[in-house]
Amino acid sequence: METDSPVQTSSEEQQKLFSLKKWNPVALWTWDVECDTCAICRVNLMEACLRCQSDSKSDECVVVWGECNHSFHNCCMALWVKQNNRCPLCQVDWSVQRVGK
């Protein structure tokens, strides 16, 4: 009959295999938009829309994301929704996910 005995490890196995001297983490990121151009006014989303550029309201122009993950200038989408309550790109009923710069 065999008895269960604890496994013994040698002192060599208990020594550290390596020690960490320096660690440089790297972060990866991506834009959370499928396209970086507003499909309504055709201006880059990082810039103000045409209406805000002409009215000198560049600081007030923000981006709006829909539940479908498409993004547009908030000014452009506000006018679009008055005529059609669907996303201009995928035609899904428009509902705002978030608004931000």
TrEMBL record:
It catalyses: S-[NEDD8-protein]-yl-[E2 NEDD8-conjugating enzyme]-L-cysteine + [cullin]-L-lysine = [E2 NEDD8-conjugating enzyme]-L-cysteine + N(6)-[NEDD8-protein]-yl-[cullin]-L-lysine; S-ubiquitinyl-[E2 ubiquitin-conjugating enzyme]-L-cysteine + [acceptor protein]-L-lysine = [E2 ubiquitin-conjugating enzyme]-L-cysteine + N(6)-ubiquitinyl-[acceptor protein]-L-lysine. One of its GO terms (molecular function) is ubiquitin protein ligase activity. It comes from the Eukaryota. Residues 49-91 form the RING-type domain. Its main location: cytoplasm. Belongs to the RING-box family. It is an enzyme of class 2 (transferase). Its EC number is 2.3.2.27, 2.3.2.32. GO terms for cellular component: Cul5-RING ubiquitin ligase complex; cytosol; nucleus. SUPFAM superfamilies: RING/U-box. Catalytic component of multiple cullin-5-RING E3 ubiquitin-protein ligase complexes (ECS complexes, also named CRL5 complexes) composed of CUL5, Elongin BC (ELOB and ELOC), RNF7/RBX2 and a variable SOCS box domain-containing protein as substrate-specific recognition component. Also interacts (with lower preference) with CUL1, CUL2, CUL3, CUL4A and CUL4B; additional evidence is however required to confirm this result in vivo. Interacts with UBE2F. Interacts with CSNK2B, the interaction is not affected by phosphorylation by CK2. Pathway: Protein modification; protein ubiquitination. This is RING-box protein 2.
